[in-house]
Automatic annotation (TrEMBL):
Transmembrane stretches, start-end: none
Domain SWIM-type, residue spans: 57-90
Species the sequence originates in: Streptomyces demainii
Biased amino acid composition, Gly residues: 141-153
Protein name listed in UniProt: SWIM-type domain-containing protein
Xref: InterPro entries: Znf_SWIM
Keywords (A to Z) from UniProt: Metal-binding, Zinc, Zinc-finger
Disordered: region residues: 115-169
Length: 501
């Protein structure tokens, strides 16, 4: 919970999840009512989770590594019970009391780990779960900053980590091959067959992507399933998305033939990410004064993903911060729009880097936004003095060029963050547009934003005149996120994730 890593954040816990389905399932179990006999002591967290049977599942986590054991039959590491227990513990709200001693069943496993760590062969076993339930004795570094600090335990075993990475890569490759067969069957039978088939076949394919631990492929399959019911022109959209899915499959199956940066992008798109701790240790830090341009909370099942966009004052680079919060738990303090943060950012490997994580923070800037009312509880305080001016923006042509350049390096890119200057919001029968009077051109607003009432708010702020708007420019159009009046005004609230691309 704190910067010293004494307690993990929800994001660090969710980074351990093998797939999106496990993240959702673990989030549902991050409630005190699901657990009994829960406790934490030193580097151990344990608890009993009620299941469908008469006996609760025994779940224990060794934060050194970490390592997990659960008596459930799942073959995923960590299982949803371990994730739920860690999310409950990370919330720091008394759901997992501290200070007690582990029960006998937990201590037996923890003691075995300590003995193996002290012996000459401390490597993790190269096997699956034992007969008694799911267990992973290996070390995994995906928990990010501060995970497991402050305790003495087994050092990470590079060979065990490599074996696990190889096994997961093999599962993802099998999933990509299975999806290729599904796409080939669809094209052979004709796109019209997708409308008649319904969701059943796609759901089965998505479930296989979950088994393959490929959350990126699972997401694409579910998007494909929604296209046949998305209105006129769906066959063309389905063909486009099938082509992108095919490209991703082939890219992962032939990673060794790709340039290093494109291979990193491909790994990320299928769902393989770099642990935060590893990223900060090996990546290049970029120091700048970062302006917070906007943020968006997106509900994904029972988890909330927070996206925060920044732009460097000196480098002019865009950056995206991504964090997660468990159900019913407060999100991490948000960076308010308009804040200028003097900090180091480290970008995740990619052909066109965008997602980043914050490293060292330097002396706080005195500048900040003038709040539109009081900031929510837990949000960093921002001095009212020294208001920021409206950020510098670009015209429609430059915005499209920026998206096109990024798309050339990442063909699966949905949109690229840009700040549009001096555009006028205009409603019409065919949807909204942002008109650029300087060039006589206009950028359509993404049709998926058509039902948002904040577009009328944007029009009211503009008063028929030009305004500055930050958002994402993509192949469907522009998605507004923030405008200035002259202080920042958020144009979006928490939304439900879903729909078609």
């Amino acid at each position: 919970m704190n910067p010293q890593g004494e307690r993990w954040t929800a994001e660090q816990v969710l980074a351990l999840a093998p797939d999106a389905a496990s993240r959702k399932a673990g989030g549902k179990l991050a409630a005190a009512g699901s657990w009994s006999g829960a406790g934490a002591h030193g580097q151990a967290v344990w608890g009993l989770c009620a299941g469908s049977g008469s006996k609760p599942y025994q779940t224990v986590v060794d934060l050194n590594g970490p390592g997990y054991r659960c008596s459930c039959p799942s073959r995923k590491f960590p299982c949803k019970h371990a994730l739920g227990l860690l999310l409950l513990w990370a919330s720091g709200e008394g759901g997992v009391p501290g200070g007690g001693e582990p029960p006998e069943w937990a201590e037996q496993w923890l003691g075995g780990r300590r003995e193996r760590a002290a012996g000459p062969a401390a490597a993790a076993p190269d096997g699956g779960p034992g007969r008694g339930g799911a267990e992973e004795d290996g070390t995994r570094s995906g928990a990010g900053d501060g995970a497991g600090r402050g305790g003495s335990g087994a050092a990470a075993d590079p060979q065990a980590a490599r074996r696990r990475a190889e096994r997961r890569a093999q599962r993802i490759a099998a999933g990509a091959t299975e999806l290729e067969r599904r796409l080939a069957d669809l094209l052979r039978d004709g796109l019209a067959s997708a409308d008649r088939a319904g969701y059943g076949a796609w759901d089965e394919t998505a479930a296989r992507m979950v088994d393959a631990q490929a959350p990126g492929l699972e997401t694409r399959v579910r998007e494909l399933a929604a296209i046949p019911s998305s209105g006129p022109g769906w066959p063309a959209r389905l063909l486009e998305e099938c082509a992108l899915a095919h490209l991703l499959n082939q890219g992962f199956l032939h990673l060794d033939r790709l340039p290093e940066k494109l291979a990193a992008t491909t790994r990320t798109r299928v769902g393989l990410t770099t642990p935060v701790a590893e990223l900060l240790a090996t990546g290049e830090a970029v120091r700048d004064r970062w302006l917070v341009l906007g943020r968006q909370d997106t509900a994904d099942g029972r988890l909330t993903a927070r996206r925060t966009w920044l732009r460097g004052e000196r480098t002019h680079r865009m950056a995206l911060l991504l964090s997660f919060s468990a159900p019913g738990r407060p999100s991490e303090p948000a960076l308010p729009t308009g804040l200028v943060l003097d900090a180091d950012l480290t970008y995740y490997p990619a052909a066109r880097p965008l997602r980043a994580t914050i490293g060292a923070r330097h002396e706080e800037s005195p500048e900040g936004p003038s709040a539109m009312g009081a900031e929510p509880a837990g949000m960093p305080s921002v001095p009212e003095a020294g208001m920021l001016s409206v950020p510098e923006g670009c015209d429609v042509g430059t915005a499209l060029a920026a998206y096109g350049s990024a798309l050339g390096e990442d063909p699966w890119l949905e949109g690229w963050p840009v700040v549009l200057a001096e555009v006028v919001p205009v409603p019409g029968d065919d949807g909204w547009q942002l008109a650029d009077e300087r060039s006589g051109s206009a950028l359509p607003v993404d049709p998926r934003c058509a039902g948002r009432t904040d577009l009328w708010q944007l029009m009211a702020i503009s008063g028929g005149g030009p305004v500055t708007v930050f958002g994402e420019c993509g192949h469907r159009g522009f998605s507004p996120i923030t405008t200035w009046d002259p202080t920042p005004v958020s144009l979006i609230t928490t939304t439900a994730q879903g729909g078609t691309r």
